[in-house]
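User: quick one, fold this
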Amino acid sequence: MSSPPPVLLRVAAPIAALLYPALVRAVTALSPICLVLALGVPLLGLVAGYSLGRTGASRFVRAAAYAAVGAPPLFAVMGGWLDFQHALPFGSVGLWIPLWGTITFVALVDRRVAPTMAAPSPRWLVLVHASSAILIVLFAVAHVANHLAGLFGGDVHVAIMHALRRVYRHPLVEPVLLATVFLQVSTGFVLLWRRMPQAREWFSTLQIATGTYLMMFFASHVSAVFRARLLRDRDTDWTWLSGGELLTDPWSARLVPYYFLAVIALAVHVACGLRVVMIGHGMRVGRGNALVAIFAALATLGSVLIFVGLVRA
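Assistant:
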């Protein structure tokens, strides 16, 4: 049996996640340059997840690293539900610190070594996950294009948004879209949990890490939209998204890495899935790898342009 991974490798990602709220706060308290440090938390979680997958670390330790990749949407959803309520005597940071402190402690003492192989996922589960992704990808492409239109001003964005809403908020379409998101998250969780022990190479790690991010993002984004619409009677339009000073307001600053990485995570996750399918149908591995790189580059450029439009608003 192999020896357990080094202590520093086991706790690096949870410690970084523990510090994530402070790094986000530094964006407004010190400098917007601190965004680089905040974005470094998911990156460290990705690298740790890859390294731990090659050492045979326990499933918990690996899951902690992947959860650190999802720190931006997790912090956003906790803030949305806890920072504007009075029923509980704590907010998002008050829960974040003990949560990640506990995860860090367990990762510190967890010296278990798990097998690096697992039973393959049922084919029907993979097909359901992949098939349901088609509708979400179509919606996401239209949604991202709508946000890119913000480069030409909020009025252009809103005009396109109202045209798109006639489709995706139709009484027959919106429930189907929401059910598809739920199906994606539920099947994705099962697939990620089953595939985690098998993730020993870079692209499988990327697929699991981006999938983890997207699960948390969907939970945060859907709940935020319906909380705004149903509880606060606010329209989730351009003003709702850009109304806060993203780089100067302490609470809104958490939304920058959250949204910025969402576009990239979606593109990379889809590309990793396409890579597996296309290599299985005869594509050379090098071209499959290039496909993922191209998707990642285009998504990064898209995220940058979206935030240029938001900051100019």
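User: anything notable?
Assistant: The chain has a mean pLDDT of 86.
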